[in-house]
Amino acid sequence: MNGTLSSQAADATPTLEREFDLIVIGAGSGGVRCARIAASLGARVAIVERAHWGGTCVNLGCVPKKLMFYGVQVGKAIADGPAYGWDVTLPQHSWPDFKRSKDRVIERLDGIYVRLLENAGVALFRGDAALAGPRAGGGWRVEVGPSPLAPERPVTVIGAARVVVATGSSPTRLAIPGADLALTSDQVFTMDDCPASMLVLGAGYIGVEFSGVFAGFGVKTSLAFRRDHVLRGFDSQMVGRLEELMAQAGVTLYPGLEPVRIERASSGAGLVTHFANGTELEAGGVLMATGRHPAVAGLNLESAGVALERGRIVTNARFETSVPGIYAIGDVTNHINLTPVAVAEGQMLAETLYGPGPRDQRDFKAVPKAVFFQEPLSTVGISEDEALADGGNYAIFTSSFTPLSQSVPQRPGQALMKLIVKAGRSPDGALAGSGAIVGVHMVGEDSPDIIQVMAMAVVNQMTKAQLDRVLALHPTMAEEFVTMRAPQRFISAGKVVAD
Ligand SMILES: Cc1cc2nc3c(=O)[nH]c(=O)nc-3n(C[C@H](O)[C@H](O)[C@H](O)COP(=O)(O)OP(=O)(O)OC[C@H]3O[C@@H](n4cnc5c(N)ncnc54)[C@H](O)[C@@H]3O)c2cc1C
Ligand SMILES: NC(=O)c1ccc[n+]([C@@H]2O[C@H](COP(=O)([O-])OP(=O)(O)OC[C@H]3O[C@@H](n4cnc5c(N)ncnc54)[C@H](O)[C@@H]3O)[C@@H](O)[C@H]2O)c1
C-alpha cells in the first residue's frame, strides 16, 4: 500500500528525508479531505497514517456501523416476511459470516482512499507521526516511526512549512478495576464472534447504536447508564419515544447505574459488572461505550508549544493552534465529532491555505445528526427543551403514528415527528406559528434521510408558511412534515402556554 516508503533504506538514522509544503498527520475523514484538496490546489503534500487509510469513520465507525444497521434491517424484513405472504423460516444470524462480508467492503474502501490520495499526488507514509522540532528555514519536522500496522518501518523525518494535526479520537476506558476485560467499539468491529449476551455501559451515540445492533442480531442485550435517560442533549420527548422502541426491540434499560468494577464470572466465561448501588449484572461480554478522547498522545504537541485544553487541541475559527504553522481539524479538537464536520473543516482549511479562501461557509450551528438505533433518532436545529430554556415564542407541531410498513406484520412501535417553529403574535395578541423552522426531529425508519433533507429548511431559515406550500408525496413517512397544520402547543417565555 505504501509505495513511498518501500524504496527507503533500512537505516534507522532520522535524517530529513523529504520536504513538503504540507504534512497532514492522520488519514481520517478530515485529514484525507485536507490533503487531497491542498494537493489539487498545487501544494506538495504528505499524509501520515499509523493504522487504516480512511480513519475511524471508514474502518471503525460510521461505515461498518451502518453495515451492521443494514444487517439488522434485513433480519427484521425476514421476520416480517410471513405476514406479507413470503414462505420463510427465520435463520440464525452468523456474526463470523457477517464480519467476513463487512471486512471485504472495508478493505475495498481502504483501497479507494489510497487511490484517491495517490491520484491527487499526495505522498503516503504509513507509521506513527510525532512533531520533531522546527525545520531550518521555517516550518516543522515530523518523525514517522514504527506503528502496530507497520512495525518494521525505519524512522523517517520529513519536513514542511505547515502541519495539520487530524489524528481523531480513541475510545475511553473508565478507570475502574477490570476495565480491560470490557470491549470498546474498536474491538467489537474486529471480534470474530459475538457472545450470546452483551452488557453495554454508557448510553451515548455508541451505546444506543450498538445496543440496537446486538439486539437485532439476536444477542440478549442490556444497557446500563448513569443518568435517568439515554442520549444527553437531544429533545426529551424524542428520547422518550426512542426508549420505548429500544425496550420493544428487546434492549433491557438500566438507568441510574454507575459502574465500579468488572470481573470474570465465577461460573462460565462471562463477566460480572458491579455498580455503585450494589447492583450486579452478568453478561457474556461488556461493551464500554463511555466516550472518546482526542488522540494527542505521543505527538509531542506540548514540547512544540501547542495549547491543549482538557486533552483537546485548542484552535480558532481558522483552525490555527497556538503555534504558527500548526493547524488542527476534526475530532482531535473535540468541536463537533462527526465525519461531515471533519470533512468540511479539512476542505475549508486547505482552501484557506492554498486557495482564495473557503469556497463555502458551512453552518456549524444547525448540524444534522442521527443516532442509528434500529428505528433511528434524527435531528437538526434546536430541541423543545432548548426552546423552553431560551425564553422565546415557539409553536410545536408533532405527529405520532404507526408506520404503514408495520401494519401488515403488526409490528409495535410508533414513529414520532416534530417541527419547532418561531411563533409571532397576531394583532389580537394570539400566538401564531408560521415563522422560521428552527428544529426538526424524528424517531422512525428512514429518519436520517428525511432529516438530511429537512436540514435544508433549517439552515436556510425557511418558514413554516413556505413549507405549507409544498404538496405531499403520498404515501411516505416524510409527507407528515408538510401536512402538519395545527400546533400541538405553544411555548412562550419558558412556559408551555397551550396543549
Ligand atoms: C463507532 C463509531 C460510529 C460513528 N458513527 C458516525 C456516524 O454515523 N456519522 C458520523 O458523522 N460520525 C460518526 N462517528 C464519528 C466519526 O467517525 C468521527 O467524527 C470522524 O471519523 C472524525 O474524523 P477525523 O478525521 O477527525 O479523525 P479519524 O477519522 O479518527 O482519523 C484520524 C486518523 O489519525 C490516525 N492517527 C492518530 N494518531 C496518529 C499518529 N500519531 N500518527 C499517524 N496517524 C495517526 C488514526 O489512525 C486515524 O486513522 C462514529 C464514530 C465511532 C467511533
Ligand atoms: N451516529 C453518529 O453520528 C455517531 C455514532 C457514534 C459516535 N459518534 C460520535 O462519537 C462521539 C463519541 O460517542 P460515544 O457514544 O463514545 O460518546 P458519548 O459522549 O456520546 O456518550 C458517552 C456515554 O458514556 C457515559 N459516561 C461517561 N463517563 C462515564 C462514567 N464515568 N461512568 C458511566 N458512564 C459514563 C455518558 O454519560 C454517555 O452516556 C459522539 O459524541 C459522536 O460525536 C457519532
From TrEMBL:
Cofactor note: Binds 1 FAD per subunit.
Keyword Cytoplasm: no
Any GO BP: glutathione metabolic process
Domain Pyridine nucleotide-disulphide oxidoreductase dimerisation: 367-484
Cofactor (UniProt): FAD
One GO CC term on file: cytosol
Entry protein name: Glutathione-disulfide reductase
